[in-house]
Design a protein that fits this description.
- There is one protein chain.
- The protein has 141 residues and is α+β, with helices and mostly antiparallel strands.
- The protein has two domains: 77 residues, Rossmann fold; 39 residues, no CATH class.
- 24% of the residues lie in helices and 23% in strands.
- The protein contains four helices and four strands.
- A four-stranded antiparallel β-sheet has the order 2-1-3-4, with helices on one face.
- The N and C termini lie far apart (51 Å).
């Protein structure tokens, strides 16, 4: 018995400044399937994925979930439907201080002591003493 596709992408197209980076890509994923996109650098794998999860709007084509067209649905609505992207790398805001990053992640941490206590809970807590300016250290590459 063949299972129908749950997630489909039909003829996806993306153009950046006259350069077509995705040329009519189509995918179909059935329930329980695990699908990988393989190809050389610059083939459009990441852009195709970003169009499916809603991070990039396609210039052509459609994305369907359970037969429903979600091509123009915002990312948060797709996430509620079960289509989401969670990056593997840690999300930090480069150019901000360690303190600013912690404040962003912990809006209820109001005082400097709370921020410091939260920083010490990250990893083994000793990393903070290795930073040249402690909480004031700007996060970089």
């Amino acid at each position: 018995m063949e299972t129908r596709s749950i997630l489909e992408a039909h003829d996806l197209v993306k153009v950046y400044k006259k350069r077509r980076v995705v040329h009519g890509a189509s995918y179909a994923v059935r329930q329980g399937e695990c699908v990988g996109l393989l190809g050389p650098n610059g083939a459009g794998k990441t852009t195709s994925f970003y169009m499916i999860v809603g991070m990039v709007r396609p210039d052509g084509g459609r994305v369907l979930l359970d037969g429903q067209d979600i091509t123009h649905a915002p990312m948060y609505k797709r996430a509620r439907m079960g289509i989401a992207y969670l990056p593997q790398e840690a999300s930090i805001f480069r150019g901000l201080t360690v303190e600013d990053n912690i404040r962003y992640a912990c809006p209820n941490c109001t005082g400097r002591e709370e921020i410091l206590a939260m920083a010490r809970k990250i990893g083994d807590g000793e990393w903070l003493e290795t930073l040249p300016n402690g909480l004031e250290t700007e996060v970089g590459e």
